[in-house]
Write a structure and sequence with these properties.
heterodimer; A: 304 residues; mainly alpha; B: alpha+beta; 6-stranded mixed sheet; transmembrane helix (chain A)
């Protein structure tokens, strides 16, 4: 046998064994992730059935209907304003939620990371406690706080700061407050992990080199904990964009986000192809946003 | 530059903790460090030398006392207002910045113009011979190179005083020797006052213009390396700087006598004293009149010389340092009776 052939045969056998060993995981991915996505993709190109469901023939109507609408009477095509309003609301609520959780989460994570080692566990535990409760119950708890006869309005009226209750519930602000509350831990935990690794002696070095406190934050702390900021933003932005429960309960029926709108298509509206197209659109937008965000933050990291 | 001291500590007290658990890290420390001086604070860990350095840098506020920089009281000023820079023991280089950006950091914070920042950074990198590595990140550098970046970064803003907190302790022996002469060169070329903290007495002796020896929060002695080595004020300083034999003795009628009865020096006072003699000041000789009789108990070979362990007639142990000779064995075998010759002026008489 030519030397080298034996090694090549071994390598080939190893490669085959590798495929075999990862087969369960691949199968799970195929059945659990790729399969359903494919189903949704196909649905989005079918015709809606009379009582829900989908039928043949293949059609682009659902994708057309995502952005555009045809007038029933004269057949003119115009932008689907109602849809665009929902997309816009979803986008700005998710972006502002991400910003708010960051603004609130950074000091929180900093506080925890600077506690003595043994009390940090307790603080982290407190941060994660909300996860133990059902999302719906947490959302109703927020409702109890912000409704017209709720805690906040009662307190403000009692203090004489306002004459009559502020209408927060069933507005976009309610959704914003709710989402910020629900997703805050998802921002705090990765930020904590990043700050925990932060070498606090660098602050002394910066302070020694004539940096003000603001300069320390901008030039030293934020660039170094950037991976935590990126991770936290992704963890908050993605579920926020697809939020369903919070806008449903706190936003009321009028202030839908894209998640509620998709649910509507599969429920009352009985337009499964449109629901499927909207779902695919959400997936595409999230993927695109992620790619752009990761690339931009990586470049900023390089530039220092 | 004025003729006054570059930096001065006046009656500095620093206490940590509260109530019954107060720890006095600095206990009434006063020192004046001259312009352009290489001053070393020397002492064992926990003696307060780093705390004093941090008081000068502004990271600690003294409980009492004043810090003057060029004659101006800066006790209440934060670190970013003091024209003082620190080379940290851990270097504390910014990991997200390149070597050049690290060096430029202080200059940028001082609001220097772009051109000046670039020019000074280049000059500093050339000064520490790192111009080739300007674009690297600190984690791609060796320990010695990181050390140079830390130095360049602290020197770039042209501080009035440069503080160095055990900067060489993380380097291996060879690199440490190299950096010692490098530091001396840098100090010479920049003319900046260096305040250097170390627990390594050899480092202190070779590098410093003057040394301040600290122990338990007190500054025990300030002087040139020769002063400190040859005329230590007390047993602690003598023991900490180099190796020393301590022998119990008595002062009586103008003469200092060992417990065994031999007179070893002249000296005033009366009562018990301690006599300190450096091992290299003792010569082994054939026992004769006027020499200190001793018995050899063993020897340790150290390369350049040997430590010969001896016992005096009163039972106290003494170490003598004997230079190695190319012929081989320079130390007499155990059990040999020898006479110890003490070099003139080598006997230090210490209190108690």
């Amino acid at each position: 046998m030519v030397p080298g052939m034996a090694e090549m045969a071994t390598a080939r056998r190893r490669a085959r064994a590798g495929w075999l060993l990862s087969a369960p995981a691949l199968l799970l991915l195929l059945v659990g992730a790729a399969g359903p996505l494919l189903v949704v993709l196909v649905f989005s190109f079918l015709t809606k059935g009379g009582y829900g469901g989908v039928t043949l023939p293949l059609s682009g109507a659902a994708w057309f209907g995502v952005f555009l609408e045809r007038d029933i009477f004269d057949g003119t095509v115009s932008a689907a304003d109602a849809h665009l309003v929902i997309f816009w609301r979803s986008a700005w609520l998710s972006v502002v939620t991400t910003l708010l959780t960051f603004v609130l989460g950074l000091p929180t994570a900093w506080f925890i990371a600077t506690r003595p080692e043994r009390s940090r566990g307790l603080w982290l535990f407190l941060i994660t406690i909300p996860f133990w409760t059902n999302l719906l119950i947490r959302t109703f708890a927020i409702m109890e706080v912000i409704r017209n006869e709720g805690l906040l309005n009662t307190a403000l009226t009692g203090l004489g700061l306002i004459d009559r209750p502020i209408q927060i519930l069933f507005t976009d602000w309610a959704t914003l407050i709710g989402m910020t509350y629900v997703y805050l831990p998802l921002m705090v935990l990765p930020l904590y992990a990043a700050i925990d690794r932060f070498d606090f002696r660098l602050l002394e070095a910066g302070y020694d080199l004539y940096a003000s406190r603001l300069a320390l934050l901008r030039k030293v702390i934020l660039p170094i904990v950037r991976p935590g900021i990126v991770a936290g933003s992704i963890l908050v932005f993605i579920p926020a964009l697809g939020s369903y429960v919070v806008p449903r309960v706190l936003g009321g029926g009028k202030n839908m986000m894209i998640g509620n709108f998709i649910e509507l298509q599969f429920g009352q509206a009985r337009n499964w192809p449109l629901g499927a197209a909207l779902s695919m659109l959400l997936l595409l937008v999230v993927t695109a946003a992620l790619l752009v965000y990761v690339r931009v933050s990586a470049r900023e990291g390089r530039d220092g | 530059m004025g003729a006054g001291p570059a930096v001065e500590a006046q009656n500095i007290v620093k206490q940590f903790g509260q109530g019954a658990e107060v720890v006095r890290a600095l206990d009434d420390v006063s020192v004046r460090i001259a312009q352009g001086e290489f001053f070393t604070l020397l002492g064992p860990s926990g003696c307060g030398k780093t705390t004093l350095l941090r008081c000068i840098a502004g990271f600690e506020t003294p409980t009492a006392g004043r810090i003057l920089l060029g004659g101006r009281d800066i006790t209440g000023e934060p670190p970013n207002r003091r024209r003082v820079n620190t080379v940290f023991q851990s270097y504390a280089l910014f990991p997200h910045l390149t070597v050049a950006q690290n060096v430029a950091f202080g200059l940028e914070m001082l609001g220097k113009s772009r051109a000046e920042v670039r020019q000074t950074t280049e000059r500093m990198l050339a000064l520490v011979r790192l111009d080739q590595l300007a674009g690297r990140r600190p984690d791609a550098l060796s320990g010695g190179q990181q050390q140079r970046v830390a130095l360049a970064r602290a020197l770039a803003p042209q501080p009035e005083v440069l503080l160095l907190d055990e900067p060489l302790s993380a380097l291996d022996l060879k690199l440490r020797k190299e950096m010692q002469s490098e530091l001396k060169r840098l100090q010479h070329e920049t003319g900046i006052t260096f305040v250097f903290v170390t627990h390594d007495q050899e480092e202190a002796l070779t590098m410093s213009d003057r040394i301040g020896v600290m122990s338990a929060g007190k500054l025990l002695q300030v002087g040139t390396p020769r002063d400190i080595y040859n005329r230590p004020v007390n047993r602690f300083v003598a023991d900490f700087i180099g190796e020393t034999n301590f022998l119990p003795a008595r002062a009586e009628g103008g003469v200092i006598r060992l417990a065994s009865g031999e007179a070893v020096a002249q000296g005033p006072g009366s009562g018990p004293v301690t006599v300190a003699i450096r091992p290299e000041q003792l010569r082994l000789d054939v026992l004769a009149e006027g020499l200190l009789p001793a018995t050899v108990e063993g020897a340790t070979y150290l390369g350049t010389d040997s430590h010969v362990h001896l016992r005096l007639s009163d039972g106290s142990a003494v170490v003598a340092r004997v230079p190695s000779s190319p012929a081989g064995d320079s130390a007499p075998p155990s059990g040999t009776q020898v006479g110890l010759r003490i070099a003139p002026g080598a006997v230090q008489v210490l209190e108690g």
